[in-house]
Amino acid sequence: MADTAVLTHEAGAADPGLAARLGALDLPAGGFTAPARKAALARFEKMGLPRGRDEYWRYTDPSAFNAAVPAPMDIADSGPDGPLFEDLDRLRLVFVDGVFDAAASDDLALEGVEIDTLAAAEGQAGHWAADVYGTLEAEGQTRVARPFGALNTAVARDGALIRVTGKPSRPIHLIHRRADDSADVYFHHVIVVEPGAEVTVLETGMTGARSNYVIEVDVREGGSFHHITAKRAGYQKLGWGGIFARVAAKALFKSFNLSLNGTLMRHEAVIDIVGDDAVAHIAGAVLGDGKNGDFAHDDTVFITHGAERGESRQVFKKVLKNGAKGIFQGKILVQPGAQKTDGYQISQALLLDEDSQFLGKPELEIYADDVQCSHGSTTGAIDETVLFYLRSRGVPKGRAIVLMVLSFLADALAEVEDESLREQISERLDAWLTRHA
Amino acid sequence: MNVTTDLEVREGVDRETVETVANMGSYKYGWDTEIEMEYAPKGLSEDIVRLISQKNEEPEWMTEWRLAAYRRWVTMQEPKWAMLNYPEIDFQEQYYYARPKSMEVKPKSLDEVDPKLLATYEKLGIPLKEQMILAGVEGAGETPSEGRKVAVDAVFDSVSVGTTFKDELKKAGVIFCSISEAIREYPDLVKKYLGSVVPPTDNFYATLNSAVFSDGSFVYIPPGVTCPMELSTYFRINAENTGQFERTLIIADKGSYVSYLEGCTAPKRDTAQLHAAVVEIVILEDAEVKYSTVQNWFPGDEEGKGGIYNFVTKRADCREARAKVMWTQVETGSAITWKYPSCILRGEESSGEFYSIAIANNMQQADTGTKMIHLGKNTRSRIVSKGISAGKAQNTYRGLVSMHPRATNSRNYTQCDSLLIGDKCGAHTVPYIEVKNNSSRVEHEATTSKVDDEQLFYCRQRGMDEEQAVAVIVNGFVRDVLQALPMEFAMEAQSLVAISLEGSVG
């Protein structure tokens, strides 16, 4: 197993904050995950809690994630949005505060895929997930310390275990619901896409007053993985999440995340391209309004090209108003020998008023010469000329701004391949923008 | 190395390019001057700091200023965030002061300077004679004396050897002298501005410099004066195991203008040498400063033995409205480069520009870029950075663009391009973008690519060998930046680009 990176400060169990953080948690012994949990706990203790002066936390204050327990969040604070993708033919798995609710879920049998849940499968000997659980997260710690990922592997009790062997006819829809005002929720999904297999995973709903998720995705040779998350967040919501993906030769990985509301959300993505001719795309659309309290949203992405002719795309768009803060830290690492890599990254922020801010660090680290890598980043306000044009054509100001914002977000949304899903997300964006105009 | 002198000039290849290729050679400035030197004892302590101050005949306040910096420095940690790998520096294994014996009694004019020193600069192409133009330009002798003049302050290890055109500059009201002289002669100006842009507590290397800087240049341009000629400082490290710590302070008073050039070289040595400089520029209302550097310190040999470790803090403070600064740098030398010439855009409508070519070949490592700190309304900045990596070198652009909440209606445009030659090197980009108001626009673009095969094929078809072809393509790649350089520097820089890449192909 790879070495673990450490944060820039001297960490260790001596940190009283760390002891308090762990003390507030009930650590499961685990079944087949027991060795992975033990190793993860050791990793977490070695790394310690992040601090504001750590390079990867310079723009996001980690203290709310470091606190032993989250502030309670009223379940009624769920915003006016209803559930998404309701009219879609899909297989539903429902989690309540991170715990699988079999009664509310569909039958887990679906052709071309094996679906289990972590808590239920833990006791089984020789389960396929035993070889994956915690391993991709651990590898994702090699270059940058991600303490909350390790914490999740040690603490999470439930989650979906999905092994795709064929081409299931329906997408798998993971739905989250809340039950307890002060729930500190941890869940951990493991997804393996076997060679040539193909799956779409959707994830929506609401998760805890504070949530921490890890998704480990292993896309094997020629496999395809489509991932769309559009979780709803209340205004007080705190969330940290990490996607740890490995993409093999000729495989496809595509992930899109829609984020609305929340006090502090951080999404980390670690994607390793390990086989030739692989494709990895990750995109995000964020709408943040600081009117109802603080809003900070942080996308921290690290894509490693370790094989030839890989293609990666990072497309992140943030629309911010009323003192909302958007953060993007994206990195493309091209390892020696990863020739013919095509790496692209764009991060853009639209600041709708004087108080909002965007902080970005789009990085390239390249050790191969025959590559095309580029990144772009822009920050600015609504273009008054375009606004004037729309108004001169009779579009009311509020509607004109909504249209302009939607067109600003279009590139990110285009990363959702399925037209009907894209349509539904677009409607959700439109509704939010109209409400927050 | 290819013999190219008899290369036939064909259509489509300009003469300049052919000359560039013809002039290719290894590090040209690697010889040393045998001269009797006087050293301060090895290592660093309060006594050494006092000794340097005493050698410069400084007033008490200056000695105290240095000592405060030293006391601060001993509590500081060396920064480790740059993408640079080098063995731990033993700060006690360095000499902090070295001056030629012949400089013990300060020469009153250039005529009194030790001929060996004058010969050194002559050989470097920096004749310390008036009426001569600068450095490495063919046919300098043919230039009429009324042509372009460049005043030179020549720094040899720890001391300034001499400054040319002082009298002529004085007539225009311009003060151009060594910083040690300025501390003695113009204490009020020095007291007012020294450390006001780069405070002695700024960072590990700036603090070290504040404690031990031995010499450097001082420039003051009075209000409304356009400096009648370009000013230049040439830094030469000669002594072994000796660090050079120079300090430059430039003050452009209201409505003034100056173009300042800086060059540097050092002999080939097996052991690495330390260079930690500080450059402070203060620019007042409507004034403009152009600061151009061709950094050509010894880069170490092909195996990475020796070379200069270059840790430099350069910062310009556009303190008042419509102040303007332009940094242009061509970084081809040094084993290690750690350098971020920055602009503080405090005055309304002030502007900062940064043009950089950084070339790293063999085992060189460069971590360089800029900071644009927008504090005032309607401020503008532009960054154009071209990084080239070859051999086993690592080249990093690191930069910050910061728009403060009050810097409304400001603008930044950044373009960082990297070119990789060979598959053993690395090119990295680490930009930080911080935008805290919405009326400003910030745009950042970066690309990384290799020498285009089609362009290469075209050049080869025209009769160039691969190395020449690469040099031509690279010169095209860096053209945007070369155009920002003063003419003499542009020519020198262009040939340096080729020299630095020698041996990187095939």
Overview of this structure, please?
- The complex is a heterodimer of chains A (437) and B (506).
- With 437 residues, chain A is of the alpha/beta class.
- Chain A has one domain.
- Chain A has helices at 16-23, 34-47, 63-66, 118-121, 135-139, 147-155, 384-392, 397-413, 419-435, and strands at 91-96, 99-100, 113-117, 160-164, 172-177, 184-193, 198-205, 210-219, 224-231, 238-247, 252-260, 264-273, 279-289, 296-305, 311-321, 325-334, 342-351, 357-366, 372-380.
- In chain A, the strands form two sheets. In chain A, strands 2-1-5-7-9-11-13-15-17-19 form a ten-stranded mixed sheet, with helices on one face. Chain A has a nine-stranded mixed sheet with strand order 3-4-6-8-10-12-14-16-18.
- The N and C termini of chain A lie far apart (50 Å).
- The mean pLDDT of chain A is 92.
- By secondary structure, chain B is α/β, with parallel strands linked by helices.
- Chain B has one domain (36-451).
- In chain B, the strands form three sheets. Chain B has a ten-stranded mixed sheet. A six-stranded parallel β-barrel of chain B has the order 12-14-17-20-18-15. Chain B has a two-stranded antiparallel ribbon with strand order 1-2.
- In chain B, a hairpin with a 2-residue loop joins strand 3 (150-156) and strand 4 (159-163).
- In chain B, helix 1 (15-22) packs across helix 10 and helix 6 packs across helix 7.
- The longest helix of chain B is centred in the first third of the chain and has 14 residues, at 60-73.
- The chains are: A alpha/beta (437), B alpha/beta (506).
Quick overview of this protein structure:
Chain A is α/β, with parallel strands linked by helices.
CA radius of gyration of chain A is: 21 Å
Terminal CA distance of chain A reads: 50 Å
Number of helices of chain A: 9
Shape of chain B: globular
How helical, in percent, are the residues of chain A? 10-25%
Ranges of chain A where pLDDT stays below 50 over 5 or more residues in a row are none
Give the oligomeric state. Answer: heterodimer
Q: Average pLDDT value of chain A? A: 92
* Strand order in space, largest sheet of chain A: 2-1-5-7-9-11-13-15-17-19
What is the element string of chain A, with H for helices and E for strands? HHHEEEHHHEEEEEEEEEEEEEEEEHHH
Instruction: Compute the number of strand runs of chain B.
Output: 23
Q: Give the tally of structural domains of chain A.
A: 1
